[in-house]
């Protein structure tokens, strides 16, 4: 979908920074394979993960795409490779030109911005209202599937990643998972 816009193909190793918080964004990166964190360093110095972006075929697999449309042109987030990421490097200028020539993609961008805004609002509300347990359940359900009538939660996220998404210590997440296992709500399959 975006190959014709790409200047080059780049591979980011696990842990590499793709785009830094506060960086002027000149390029977007389309994830052909791999996944990356979209996180922010708070004023307190906490690293909060807002999302794990996955490779795919949609506009949502563009790293930094919404940054191209803020007035400052700076990234509000840090995008860091969670796994090895094979990306197409696309200049913001070329991407904007393509969007203007293909106006049907404007609706996709607005929808993406609306969804991301809703996710941030819900996370903030849950945090403000002390509903970390609700958020935790949402994370568990987002990485589950029904197999033979049972809800199976895969290992999509590590305990550390879930803790960073919730804004709590990883020991808290481990304790909750352990308690759910003890109550036979969750069953660990290795």
Number of E-state strands:
10
User: Uncertain regions: pLDDT < 50 for 5+ in a row?
Assistant: none
Q: Please outline the major beta sheet.
A: 4 strands, antiparallel
User: Strand order across the biggest sheet?
Assistant: 1-8-3-6
End-to-end CA span: 37 Å
Shape designation: globular
| N-to-C order of helices and strands | EEEEEEEEHHHEEHH
Structural class by SSE content: alpha+beta
What does the radius of gyration come to?
A: 18 Å
Strand content: 25-35%
The number of helical segments is: 5
What is the averaged pLDDT score?
82
Helix percentage: 25-40%
State the gist of this model.
The protein is α+β, with helices and mostly antiparallel strands and 190 residues long.
Q: What is the topology?
A:
Blueprint: E1 8-12, E2 17-19, E3 27-33, E4 35-41, E5 47-54, E6 62-63, E7 78-81, E8 85-91, H1 92-101, H2 104-128, H3 132-142, E9 144-147, E10 150-153, H4 159-166, H5 170-182
Antiparallel strand pairs: 1-8, 2-7, 3-6, 3-8, 4-5, 4-7, 9-10
Helix pairs in contact: 4-5
3D structure, described in words:
The chain is of the alpha+beta class and 190 residues long. Helix content is 35%, strand content 27%. The chain is built from five helices and ten strands, in the order ββββββββαααββαα. It has helices at 92-101, 104-128, 132-142, 159-166, 170-182; strands spanning 8-12, 17-19, 27-33, 35-41, 47-54, 62-63, 78-81, 85-91, 144-147, 150-153. The protein has a four-stranded antiparallel sheet. The protein has a four-stranded antiparallel sheet with strand order 2-7-4-5. Strand 9 (144-147) and strand 10 (150-153) form a beta hairpin. Helix 4 (159-166) packs across helix 5. The protein is globular, with a radius of gyration of 18 Å.
């Amino acid at each position: 979908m975006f190959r014709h816009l790409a200047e080059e193909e780049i591979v980011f190793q696990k842990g590499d920074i793709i785009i830094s918080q506060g960086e002027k964004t000149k390029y977007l990166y389309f994830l052909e394979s791999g996944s990356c964190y979209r996180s922010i360093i708070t004023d307190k110095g906490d690293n909060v993960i807002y999302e794990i972006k996955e490779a795919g075929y949609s506009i949502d697999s563009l790293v930094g795409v919404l940054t191209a449309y803020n007035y400052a042109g700076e990234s509000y987030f840090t995008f860091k490779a969670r796994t090895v990421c094979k990306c197409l490097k696309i200049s913001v200028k070329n991407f904007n030109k393509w969007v203007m020539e293909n106006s049907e993609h404007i609706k996709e961008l607005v929808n993406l911005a609306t969804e991301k805004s809703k996710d941030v609002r819900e996370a903030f509300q849950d945090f403000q209202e002390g509903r970390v347990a609700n958020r935790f359940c949402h994370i568990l359900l987002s990485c589950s599937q029904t197999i033979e009538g049972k809800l199976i939660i895969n290992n999509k996220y590590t305990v550390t990643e879930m803790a960073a998404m919730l804004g709590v210590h990883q020991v808290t997440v481990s304790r909750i998972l352990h308690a759910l296992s003890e109550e036979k709500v969750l069953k660990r399959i290795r």
